[in-house]
């Protein structure tokens, strides 16, 4: 009898966590893969977990039998077996819009519901690559590639780009992720096609000069009163750049964790990463991509991902394991940081 009472009390004490996944963009496929890993890895001894799928005009919880239980958007609750379930917090693993661009964060803020990722302002700013570069560019020891931000796909763009920037160039959607719509342009006659491809994904496009250097991606998070910079992953791709295929197709890219940096480079990178995290007022775990230029060894900021992938082979997962930490313990720290 006593054991039964203890079990019931334990159940009542467990926090209810909604894992938010899906999305309105092509990144939803990656989001679902990440959510599947979080769902099976999260500590169910401590948390009751409910996966919430968010699609345009369709927010729902899917039961084990496949039934879709609609979410009440008035308070982000569900009704399950005649019982109303509200959540103590949200584990946000929705890449792209609306999970990474601040829209969901603003909604949760209105409800007073905590979540594991950056707030609405930081999320919306960091989703915009051009605005993010403008904010971080004065951080000591950090460099940014020369770039132009375009707001309309006009005939005048190619002449402006070729006048102000040097080839080769990277053309990318300004608010996109997973390298969707991104191109590397080496000669002028490739430029318009690359612009058309990027504008097909976004109304804003960033054009920036190519930096010839070693590419890295590094995770950083705040928990238990301190900011932890994880070991960087070095990206060695057999492709021209770390595009969608290179990111998600086995064998295309070699990922080395920890990346090959000397002691000075590690110290300098960690200083810069902490300052980026602080200046952008980040929360939870984020991932920052950067180059170390071959000739100068300068740190060139590429972009920040505020809802990084959480699949079993994702870069963040590799980096957490590299410090000897269990992924479940990592998730525990992210969740407890909400409260």
From TrEMBL:
GO terms for biological process: cell wall organization; peptidoglycan biosynthetic process; regulation of cell shape. GO terms for cellular component: cytoplasm. Keywords: ATP-binding, Cell shape, Cell wall biogenesis/degradation, Cytoplasm, Ligase, Magnesium, Manganese, Metal-binding, Nucleotide-binding, Peptidoglycan synthesis. It catalyses: 2 D-alanine + ATP = D-alanyl-D-alanine + ADP + phosphate + H(+). One of its GO terms (molecular function) is metal ion binding. Mg(2+) 2 binds at residues 303, 305. Its main location: cytoplasm. The keyword Manganese applies. Its EC number is 6.3.2.4. Cell wall formation. This is D-alanine--D-alanine ligase. It comes from Aquiflexum balticum DSM 16537.
């Amino acid at each position: 009898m006593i054991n039964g009472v203890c079990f019931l009390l334990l159940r009542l004490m467990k926090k209810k966590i909604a894992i938010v996944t899906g999305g309105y963009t092509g990144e939803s496929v990656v989001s679902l893969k990440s959510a599947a890993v979080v769902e099976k890895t999260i500590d169910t001894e401590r948390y009751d977990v409910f996966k919430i799928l968010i699609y345009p005009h369709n927010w729902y919880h899917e039961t084990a039998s496949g039934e879709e239980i609609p979410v009440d958007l008035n308070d982000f609750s569900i009704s399950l077996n005649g019982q109303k379930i509200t959540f103590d917090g949200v584990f946000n693993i929705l890449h792209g819009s609306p999970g990474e661009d601040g829209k969901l964060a603003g909604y949760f803020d209105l409800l007073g519901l905590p979540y594991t990722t950056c707030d609405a302002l930081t999320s919306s700013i960091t989703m915009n690559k051009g605005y993010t570069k403008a904010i971080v560019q004065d951080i000591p020891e950090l460099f940014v590639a020369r770039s132009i931000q375009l707001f309309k796909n006009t005939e005048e763009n190619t002449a402006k780009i070729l006048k102000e920037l040097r080839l080769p160039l990277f053309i990318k959607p300004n608010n996109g992720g997973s390298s969707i719509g991104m191109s590397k342009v080496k000669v002028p006659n490739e430029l318009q096609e690359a612009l058309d491809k990027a504008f097909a994904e976004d109304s804003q496009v960033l054009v920036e000069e190519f930096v010839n250097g070693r590419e890295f991606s590094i995770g950083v998070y705040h928990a238990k009163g301190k900011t932890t910079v994880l070991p960087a992953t070095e990206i060695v791709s057999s492709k021209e750049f770390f595009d969608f295929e290179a990111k998600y197709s086995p064998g295309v890219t070699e990922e080395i964790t920890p990346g090959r940096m000397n002691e000075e480079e590690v110290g300098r990178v960690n200083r810069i990463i902490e300052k980026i995290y602080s200046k952008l007022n980040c929360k939870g775990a984020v991932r920052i991509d950067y180059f170390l230029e071959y000739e100068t060894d300068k740190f060139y900021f590429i972009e920040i991902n505020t809802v990084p992938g959480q699949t079993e082979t994702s870069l963040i997962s590799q980096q957490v394991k590299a410090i000897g930490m269990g992924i479940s313990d990592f998730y525990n720290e992210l969740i407890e940081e909400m409260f």
